[in-house]
Amino acid sequence: MSTANTAVAPIIEARQLEKFYAQPDGSRIQVIAATDLAVYPGRIIALLGPSGCGKSTLLRMLTGLAPASAGGVLWHGQPVRGETPNVSIVFQSFALFPWLTVIENVEAPLEARGMPPIERHKRALRIIDAVGLDGFETAYPKELSGGMKQRVGVARALVVEPEVLFMDEPFSALDVLTAETLRGELLELWLGHKIPTRAIFIVTHNIEEAVVLADRIIVLGRNPAHIHADFAVDIPQPRDRKSPRFIELVDAIYRVLTRPDLESNILQATEAASSSSHHHVLMLPHTRPGGMAGLLEILVDQGGHADLHRLAAELSLEVDALLPTVDTAVLLGFLRVEEGDAIITPEGQSFAQADIQARKAIFRNAALANVPLLRQMEQALKAKSNRTLQDEFFRDLLDEHFSEDEARRQLETAIQWGRYSEIFDYDAATGKLTLTEA
Amino acid sequence: MPESISAATHATPLPPTTVRPAGSRWAWAFLIDVAVLLFVFAAIYGVYAIGHLWLRPVTPESQISQNPRILPLYAFYSLVRITVAYALSLVFALSYGYLAARSRRAEVVLIPLLDILQSIPVLSFLPGVMLAMVALFPHRQLGVELGSILLIFTGQVWNMAFSFYSSLKTIPRELREAARIFRFGRWQRFVELDLPFSTIGLVWNSMMSVAGGWFFLMACEMFVLGDRDFRLPGLGSYLQTAASNGDTRALLWGLAAMIAVIVLLDQLVWRPIIIWADKFKFEQVETAKAVQHNLLSFLGPASLVIRGYRVMFRPLINRLTLTFAILARSAAQTFPVPKQMRTRRWLAVLLAATILVGLGFAVFHAVRELSDLHSEDYFFLLRSAALTFLRVNVALLLGALWTIPVGVAIGSNPRFARLAQPLAQIAASIPATALFPVILLFLIRLRGGLEIAAMLVMLLGTQWYILFNVIAGAMAIPTDLKEAARIFRFTLWGRWRRLILPGIFPYLVTGLVTASGNAWNVSIIAEYFHFRGKIVSTAGLGSAISRASDSGRFDVLLASTLIMATVVVLINRLLWRRLYRLASSRFKLES
Predict the structure, then answer these.
(1) Mean pLDDT, range B108-116, rounded to an integer
(2) Strand, coil or helix: A343
(3) Residue-level pLDDT at A183
(4) Which site in A283, B28, B99, B320 is 20 to 30 Å from A341, CA atoms measured?
């Protein structure tokens, strides 16, 4: 691990950039811990992390789309207010204007800059040609395939000749083959210096994509988001996915992503630093019990342990789809993760091999032993004479520790698990939780 | 669907249909040029005729001719009134919706206000609007004309404003961010994002609004205000006069003229606009759905409206966008930003203070007027409200009873739908108020005939909203669910209870909300009518409002209007909004 070359001045620099929501009682919900980050010219930076960890929020703060709660962004050393000058974004959902043709979409940013029609038409045509959309100038976006649409997205972003090109999971809405093609084309434009862009900042949850494209990979940890690790990638382009160095790096990133011990250390450190009254509560990964059972069964088939990276490749799952499931199994004591390998525990073994009813009992015991929230819910229900409580009661409890959205999702997950393991019943229409009679 | 509900806004239209003409466009080019030329001549004459009418000295009680030959001219007058009112509505709706969506502080006030304004029937605006306009232009017919136009406007504008507002609120985040990161100015954002994104909603609501204009045309062209009798030459007054005289022949002529105008407008204006609006549909993939439509496939994209837009409007907008962008650039360089912010804040404070003072003054006077009324008056009005409540809901129930089976039959049978839909659309476009005198002719002799007629008009005026929504709902039931019902051999009742009723529920609620709001507004005509030289009326809140307006009793008018607005808003809050929430949570069909 090393940091980037510091001899050159950064284009964009984030200093102690933070995002939090202040609560009425004076405490705060930290979404992104104070973060330092610099974008240097001549590099592709990938920001990697599981979904919902705050990658997109960080990107939006860097581009000035979202205000920072504390800290600031410097543009060539000058503090930025509002939108960051001379950057553009390629969006995950393409964000094309469906009522404008391809060329009108590409011209729109130039129009906003007051460029006369003839000149902007010329520039738009040139960039459309560069991304390989020649002949589609007058097509409407809905006539195009996903890959073509994202090419328009790239052309529109590049036409203003941004110094930094931001890309927010640009290929995740595309199928695997199209995504691969577009990655290759992007690299070709970049490596061949066919675009005036001086740096690219790409947000992704796909480890291989990051290793294929980036010169530097920043791995974000969760709750709150913080820089977990920072890799310099010095594999020469074009990169061979089969090469030992490539595989080694992917494995290393996997290990970092699945190392909760390190994560919690950092967490404690940032908490001490932020000196808020916020105390850490266990956050449930949002998974369904069924998915975890499937993972454990596969592990049993493979002899009780497997390399996570290879497992993900075999199941053709991306890291953000697999990790929450792994987290759940670890949380319940069904799985251990060591150096990127998943190893099933005896409890996990018996869970995987049990029938439906026995599984529920095992899950129930594991959940009540390891998940404080479920234990708390069970006790609260037991304390009531009618064994019934409104879900809002628990949501209010969770609201103290999580943002409103996250509190809702936490409760949903807890209810999902509690229903599955027959700790309680839930009536969605009335919002009532009732203790299941044994 | 947006969360908040209010009447007359959420009629889910049938999916617009698109087909481009197969034949060559050039064959039509010449004909179209001829048409354009004729249109220009007609327009010049039209401006002259309108100017002549509006600028002549005031003649509030112009003689309304009953000669069928005058009908084209009268139709033209009415059309101009509705068009001007619609243009005003569009401008107002865009500003109102824009303000409410952009400023959080304004939103808090403007959106509940919209709910209330929407529930106030046109006649309640009559005295204020009319007296103000006549005072503004005391010596020209223009004052009375403007009054009538503003009345039509009050019946058209609110749902459009709400539609624009809720469209603005649902623009996807990434599109908004794209506009920001690429530094769109306000104007460019408005014409390239806000307006296009809202177009489909605005088009459907415009159709509803203009239909509303025809609906209340009779009330807006001929009315008594205290001791003054206002009559404006037009289709509405022609029909009203025919009804007052009991002239069946004139009545039928008038009705035929109105239907002809409405059907022509639908085919020549609205259908092409709907086709054009299809390009603003916010979807990433092209859908294969397309249904043939007779006359429009003929005219297609070459129609006048769209041609005019392409030739005149779009270059103008492009020009403006560029100018604004350059201006904004240079403005950013010359003016320091903080100062501008400060003056703007002062202006806002000043504006808010003025509004508050005005409001306080108005409330003070209103309370004084209201306190002059006796408790018997209030008791009478509340009893009337109860009667109208009963009438409205019986009409809704009857409407639902016939439209649900028919709508489901149409919606689940594509071949039947192709036949029935255009017919239903034409039937729906006939304003029930215009049919009212004809209905009265038949029913007036019966005992309780007016009661039946009133309910029938409410039914006619509202059932279409339910029908079209039920059709849309039945079409949206997924085929695999229908197949499942067949495989498991559901009984007829089982299929309705388990599949069809839950499936159409959200659509049914949408239709009923709109229908209910409209039925209350219809009551001002259905319960009180000038017929054969006398007034026929039945007890109810609508007739109370009409009578108060007729006799110039502003205190009663104010009280009854307040009661109606309260009742309608309460029903929305207590009943419809809850059903809506239920519909969007439990009965939402997720794809």
Answers:
(1) 85
(2) strand
(3) 92
(4) A283
| A113 vs B175, B280, B325: nearest CB | B325
Beta strands in A251-378, from DSSP E residues, in sequence order? 305-307, 335-338, 341-344
- Do the beta carbons of residue A47 and residue A75 sit within 8 Å? no
Listed in sequence order, the residues at least 6 apart from A278 whose beta carbon sits closer than 8 Å to its beta carbon are: A27, A28, A29, A30, A271, A401
Chain B positions in Cβ-Cβ contact with residue A117 (cut-off 8 Å): 318, 322
| Tokens 């962008």 sit on residue | B325
- How far is the first Cα of chain A from the last one, in angstroms, to the nearest whole number? 54
Q: Which residues contact A236 (CB under 8 A, 6 or more apart)?
A: none
List, for residues B270-282, the tens digit of each pLDDT value: 877 877 777 787 7
Token reading at A260 = 């909760």
Measure the CA dihedral B482/B484/B487/B489, to 10°: -70
Specify whether the CB–CB gap between A319 and A308 falls below 8 A. no
Four-CA torsion A272, A274, A278, A282, nearest 10 degrees: -60
> How close does chain B come to A309, measured CA to CA in Å?
32
Confidence of residue A89 (pLDDT cuts 50, 70, 90): very high
Structure token digits, residue B141: 């017919």
- List Cα–Cα distances, A217 to A205, B120, B256, in angstroms: 11, 61, 74
Is residue B324 scored above 70 in pLDDT? Answer: yes
- CB of A46 closer than 8 Å to CB of A214: yes
- Closest Cα in chain A, distance from residue B277 (Å): 9
Asked if residue A169 lies in contact with residue A205, where contact means CB atoms within 8 angstroms, the answer is yes
What is the interface pTM, i.e. ipTM, of the complex? 0.77
Whether the CB-CB separation of B221 and B148 falls below 8 Å is answered with yes
A83 with B185: Cβ contact below 8 A: no
Q: Report helix, strand and coil shares of chain B as percent, to nearest 5.
A: 80, 5, 20
Nearest to A17 by CA among A30, A36, A31, A3: A36
* B377-395 tens-digit pLDDT: 888 889 999 999 999 999 9
| Cα(B120)–Cα(B564) distance, integer angstroms | 7
pLDDT bucket at B20, cuts 50 / 70 / 90 = very low
Strand (E) positions, B74-123? none
